[in-house]
Amino acid sequence: MAEKAARVVTPYEGTGHRPWVDTAPVPAPLALHSTPVRPEWVDYNGHMSESCYLLVFGDNSDAFFRFLGIDEEYRARGGSLYTVETHLHNRREAAEGEPLRLTLRLLDHDAKRVHLFHEMRHGRDDALLATAEQMLLHVDTEQGRACPFPGELLRRLGAIQTAHDALPVPGTVGKPMGIPGDRGRRAT
Description:
The chain is of the alpha+beta class. The protein has helices spanning 50-68, 72-76, 151-164, and strands at residues 30-36, 79-90, 99-109, 113-122, 128-140, 145-146.
């Protein structure tokens, strides 16, 4: 009999969500997650493995979900956010034990989608280690399809958007990947 594999657990599971205070200023960008590089994230090159950068950005997204009001209780009622596209830009290596500090900005949103930008920086020297641009979709998990955010979450997204609109759009946002003259783009 095969054993059931353990599922991926974020550091925020079971913590609920932060209470939303309408009068509280929204930080721009949000700084909701930090972590040291764990030993199990280090690969044969002696630094954090590429898949673990995505894992840490996912934990940062989960911190944002809880800031917004999406937690286990929300998911139990059939709502969640699913990532539909991610672009990672690795800039510098991080070794075991080094501190990581993440920020997140809301680039855009509509009734069903959220466009996020993450930065991962070294916790001591503030060097940019990596960025991630993500498109997420609000879903009804029972029906298995996209659905609009409830009004309360749209209102919160609007408040975050207003604060984050003052930030400059990073130069990598929306850029396709390719080599100039890339043969992969030619029609066959």
